[in-house]
Amino acid sequence: MGALRTRRGRGAGPAILSARLVRQVSLAADSKGEIAARFDGHSVVLGKFSAGTADRAQVLRTGLPLDSLRSRGRGIEKELDFLVRRLARHGLLEYCLERAGTDQVVIEPQVPDYWPQAAQPGEADILALSRFAYMRRRGNDFVLESPRAGALFRICDATIAAAIATLSVPRPLKELTRQHGFAGLALVGLLLDSHILFKIDPARGRGPRWAEGDDELVLWDFHDLLFHARSSEGRHANPLGGIYAYANAMAPPPAVRPRWPGKKIDLRKIAHSPSLSRVAKLLRQRHSTRSFDDRRPISLAELARFLDGAARVQSKFTSPLGDGDPVVTYAARPYPSAGGSYGLELYLAVDKCKGLARDHYDAGAHALVSIGVRASELDVLLAGAKLAMGAAAVPQIVITVAARFSRTSWKYSSIAYALVLKDVGVLMQTLYLMATDLGLGGCAIGIANIDLFAKMTGIEFHIEGPVGQFALGRAASSRDPTSVPGRVGIG
Length: 491
Fold this sequence. Notes:
Blueprint: E1 16-21, E2 26-29, E3 34-39, E4 42-48, H1 51-57, E5 64-65, H2 75-89, E6 93-99, E7 102-109, E8 126-129, E9 134-138, E10 141-145, E11 151-155, H3 158-165, E12 171-172, H4 173-176, H5 185-193, E13 197-200, H6 208-211, H7 215-218, H8 222-230, H9 278-285, H10 300-310, E14 315-320, E15 327-332, E16 344-350, E17 358-362, E18 367-370, H11 375-389, E19 397-404, H12 406-409, H13 416-437, E20 441-445, H14 450-457, E21 464-473, E22 489-490
Antiparallel strand pairs: 1-5, 1-6, 2-3, 3-4, 6-7, 7-11, 8-12, 8-13, 9-10, 10-11, 14-15, 16-17, 16-19, 17-18, 19-21, 20-21, 20-22
Helix pairs in contact: 1-2, 10-13
């Protein structure tokens, strides 16, 4: 790295990476030495610290150089490092890359455990802009982001944005360092670590799409990965769920679309049947249950019948694509799936069902396979479902519906993720009807934390990830007529 030479403007100094509090956050210390972060009417206690650390921490309002935390010889520096990292885990910090006291780039974390790390590129490395990276206007800001990145980059200098845009064509690092407006090695390293830039190995020879990430990533289209990351919880810091953001801007849309003015045919007078079919009765009886009877939790036998009827593999067969083409294996299940892909998997997190904890449902063998996860992660998953439903207690069982994305994207282009979500919809209805038929209660939950799932399973979010959840259990004896859909529950 010392051999690389960069062209700087007259009077420009080295770039400094600093941590600072997010704008609406303030720190306050009480008489006992406990420091709390306060924001939007909330308070997060961060721990007990010395008076010297409390005074030093105030510099976080304007920016604390991260290099200053590397000195661990002094007690205040050790405490300050601990405090800063705790603030980072709560998502209360942003990071600024500044030169001569002026922000060049501000880094906004999008995942809870983001900490700026700079990869170390070599002079001969060929760099390119990720095909998942994009720049856009956000209010009065210009931001660079990617669904693969743990942070977005707010670009404060237009020359930096222009320089990054040139990397749509792969270029060697030594060429970048010579061009006017070069952003500096620190920013290049941060963008590499965030997968916004990546290195191309000419020896692989198959082009940039195959050089970036693994074979599973090759199958993703840009818009599909972006929609997956931004419409789920865990990989962005945007407002999420039923917050009624436009309640003060416009009236709620009508529940039923206004009638078209054409001639009306009243179907109630045609083919009227005095009795409903079994399927029609199930459809009318189906409703979302948000309150469960924990004195009589669901039994393992009931769960077995539920999974058998709703999700078990019914048959397997193979079919060649054509002469000399691959042979594709299919595993049909009770619900329809795009192209017979059946790429959805069920993972069970159990609060109350004797003998179960957290399991993957093996639809082929009709068996539950235990997965070792931390109890704290299981508690977070169950609490998230409770919040999403607007329920008083966690559900007895939370079924996470995860997609093996390549099963669909291997065949379909441009519409793969949309088809995955359609599959989720019909599976949710199937789960509802099966629960109703067995006298159980269920509630579809329209969201799941993709970052938490990745940590629990050890699977990268673009390989297999949650696309929905379903709460299951024995319903409380009476349905609460005042119950309304939760933050992201589905009525």
